[in-house]
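<context>
A single protein, sequence plus fold
<sample>
Here is the protein in question:
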Amino acid sequence: MAATDAAPLVTFPTDTEVLITREFAAPRHLVYRAWTTPELIRRWWHAKRGTMTVVEVDLRVGGGWRYAMIARGGFEVAFHGEYLEIVPEERIVSTEIFEGAPDATAVSTVTFTEAAGGTALSILVRHASKGNRDLHLRNGMEDGLRDALDLLAEVAAGLR
C-alpha cells in the first residue's frame, strides 16, 4: 500500500476527461465515510486554501450536495451537484458544477476499491468539452486536489 502522503496521479484518458487516482492507508469504509460525512468533509475539502462555510450532503440518488469556502483573498469558491448513482462504499456518480462557471457541468465518478490493506480511490471527471476540461485544470485543480487528498488521508486514518 502506498503511503498516505503520496501525490495523486492525474491523467487524461480523453480530451474531455480527467482521471485522478490515489491510494490511502485506511480501509475503504473509512475513506468513504470521510468522503461523504459533512463534518468530515469540512476537515479536508478546503485543501488549506480557505475556510469552509457550507457543507451540504443529501446522499441519495436525486439528492444534492454543495461545498463552499471563503478562499484566501476573501472570495467564495463553491461547487454543487446532484447524485446520480450511489453504491455505498464502492461508487458515487454525481454532477459537478463550479459556481464560478455554471455552464461547465461535469459528471464525476468516484470509485473506492480495497487495495493491499487500504483503499484505492479513483475520480473520473467527464466534461462536456475540452474547453471545460482545460478551464478545470487552469484553476489550480491539481495542486488543490493534492492538498485536499492529503487531508482526506489524515481524516480517514484518524477514524480508526
